[in-house]
Amino acid sequence: MNQPTLSSQETLALFQRYVIGNYRRFPVVLVRGEGSYVWDREGKRYLDLFPGWGCGLLGHCPPPVVRAVQEQVATLIHVPNTWYTEVQGLWAKALSERSFGGQAFFCNSGAEANEAAIKLVRLHSQRPKYKIITFEGGFHGRTLGATTATAQPKYHEGLGPLMAGFMYAPFGDLEAVRRLIDEETAAIMIEPIQGEGGIRIPPPGFLQGLRQLCDEHGLLLVFDEVQTGMGRTGHWFAYQREGVTPDIMTLAKALCGGLAGGAMLAKPEIAPSLRPGMHAATFGGNPLAARAGLAAIQMIEEQNLLQRAQTLGELFRQRLLELQNRCEIIREVRVAGLMIGVELALDGAPAVQACMERGVLINCTQGNVLRLLPAMVLTDQEAHHGCDVLGEVLEELAKKNMNNFRS
Prior knowledge:
The protein is α/β, with parallel strands linked by helices. The protein has helices at 8-18, 63-73, 86-98, 110-124, 144-149, 174-180, 206-217, 238-242, 287-302, 305-326, 349-357, 380-400, 402-406; strands at 30-34, 37-40, 45-48, 103-107, 131-135, 166-169, 185-190, 220-224, 248-251, 262-266, 330-336, 339-344, 360-361, 363-365, 369-372. A hairpin with a 2-residue loop joins β1 and β2. The strands form three sheets. The chain has a seven-stranded mixed beta sheet with strand order 4-10-9-8-7-5-6, sandwiched between helices. A four-stranded mixed beta sheet has the order 1-2-3-13. α11 (349-357) crosses α12 (380-400).
């Protein structure tokens, strides 16, 4: 079959007829990506400051990943996990050596990684322990277990009864966590920085306090690093930024340089509890994902992209704080490497739309937090251009809403 070249309207009609409408989509058909840019069917170029919903940390179609996958796809695409492949073993080794020396279970997404973590917690913990404490504003995925772990009521509507055993605490409130712990508590599960929750950075000492509580009560500490992992914060993993080591860590999004892939890493004394027959992922750790994952790690190291993430993060911080000083609708700027949140005093959707019309792609979460997850390969010039456009848009919104805002 030849590559189709439908018009945008023809593609939209296909979706309306044949694809379930569970996503709210912009009426734009993207056809190509390179670095921090994507192009639509009509040839318009967009600067993408939210590439791949956080998966594009290395930009669109990063050349080392493309080359690795092109080579692998002609050699071996998939074999089941009843067999060994060298590349999966090397990938596990690379992740272990850059983290806390754990062992890996491979899957295809962040939700799957978190499901594996939930199972491992229950399998490893001695009965009657089975409960897991998670945090308000957190997000852990869309499967039923991961949805239940997500302490946001809007994701629970119409899905009950939910999975038993989850308790919710306010993010950053150590005493509230302490009060929830009982003889049935098995683990605490948290994003070290909340992503979908609005780039919420924990208060100083909070994660250290959770580690202490876990050690005191014999609980497992699970870090969901699906969004924070693989260098997003300027460190391989956000736990390294805080100096707190979890017992279990989950990864996805940027793990494979844009391809689908997920992983759970667990300390060696905990990992064997996920015994044969208790969990699996048919495509987990397949040769394509593994080659892409190894190529992504190599690219980050060879191009010194961890440092680049820190440098770019400071550029965005300075530009956005300057913007906040002259734009009264900005309540707060939150930056951790290339996790960037701009909290507004009003709805953020119009800003997303206006930026897109001007050729810059951003995201809005929690209704009023503009979220940027730019690529490590973004240039200074591209970063400044994105900030220029965002600044123009927000200042125009501030003028339009001046009376409402001040009243």
